[in-house]
Amino acid sequence: MKIWNSFLGKLLMTFLISMVPVVELRGAIPIGVAHGLPFWWAIPVSIVGNLVPVPFIIIFIKKIFAWLRTKSKWLNDLVTRLENRAISKIDTVKKYQFWGLFMFVAIPLPGTGAWTGALIAAMMDMDLKDAWPSITLGVITAGAIVAFVTYGAGALLFG
User: Fold this and answer.
1) 151: which DSSP letter?
2) The pLDDT value given to residue 158
3) pLDDT tens digits, residue range 77-114?
4) 35: three-class secondary structure by DSSP
């Protein structure tokens, strides 16, 4: 589509990709840069996009999970897997609290990030005001790491 070739389209694409679970900004920054978006735009747009779902997850995920459990066995099993995954990581986060949640979100590896961090915060019954600063700092740090790897590697290979 023509819109994705424009500057605004590339910003929008990067923003939307950063909101997708699992992919998050770990995928959005390299994709944005690969499509010609300057890294000084790709990074903040990805950070903001990655943070958009966080308050909704922390505030509403337990209600959404309860509703999904009533819809089908498959959805109930999916919710159970997601909850178990978050619960398995709670001990580390609880032990180090703010810094535990920060580190979990900041390390840009599969299975970590803002979505899972927000899910863990929700499973721990953390308030948004307590979880938000830690998750935000973690997303900014992950963005810096991904940007360094993306831009640094690109400069080494093609610069």
Assistant:
1) I
2) 59
3) 999 998 898 888 888 788 888 899 999 999 988 888 99
4) coil
First-residue to last-residue Cα distance in the chain:
30
Alpha-carbon gap, residue 38 to 46, rounded angstroms: 12
| 14-24 exposure pattern, b = at least 16 Cβ within 10 A, e = fewer | bbebbbeeeeb
Domain definitions of the chain by residue range = 3-158
Instruction: Name the region of 6 (left: φ>0; alpha: ψ -120 to 50; beta: rest).
Output: beta
Residue from 65, 58, 26, 50 nearest 114 by CA: 50
Listed as ranges, residues in the chain with pLDDT below 50 are none
Q: Please, which residues have CB within 8 angstroms of residue 83's CB and are 6 or more apart in sequence?
A: 65, 123
- Distant-in-sequence, close-in-space partners of 14: CB < 8 Å, separation ≥ 6: 28, 29, 31, 32, 35, 37, 41, 42, 45, 46, 49
Query: At how many degrees (to 10) do helices 73-88 and 90-106 cross?
Result: 90
